[in-house]
Amino acid sequence: MIIVCGRFLAHAGRRQELLDLSRLAVVAARNTEGCIDFAVSPDLIDADRVNILERWTSAEALRAFREDGPGEDISGLVRQFDIEEFEVSARR
């Protein structure tokens, strides 16, 4: 399993726009084979922060989504990001 998690920091006052644009990616991912979960959500404390959590059955499924998924350009809305990808070999 592949887990992608982290955060975006939106430019001041642009978080809702970032969330709105992310909606297409959430819908597309959740309808993609190999997607276990995909969430983009506003942070409860930081007004500019957006949290990301994705779970995929494999790196191949994630790569296929990234190559074929929606291409909304959110870079102009993001001032900073910290997103990491983890390969998980066991569950408890």
List the helices and strands and how they pair.
Blueprint: E1 2-10, H1 15-30, E2 35-42, E3 49-56, H2 59-68, E4 78-87
Antiparallel strand pairs: 1-3, 1-4, 2-3
TL;DR of this structure?
This protein is α+β, with helices and mostly antiparallel strands and 92 residues long.
Largest sheet: 4 strands, antiparallel
Side-by-side strand order of the widest sheet: 2-3-1-4
Structural class by sheet pairing and helices: alpha+beta
- Helix count, per DSSP? 2
Tell me which oligomeric state these chains represent. Answer: single chain
Helix and strand pattern = EHEEHE
How does this model look, in words?
With 92 residues, this protein is an alpha+beta fold. The chain is built from two helices and four strands. It is globular. The two termini are 13 Å apart.
Key descriptive features of the protein:
92 residues, alpha+beta, four-stranded antiparallel β-sheet, 28% helix
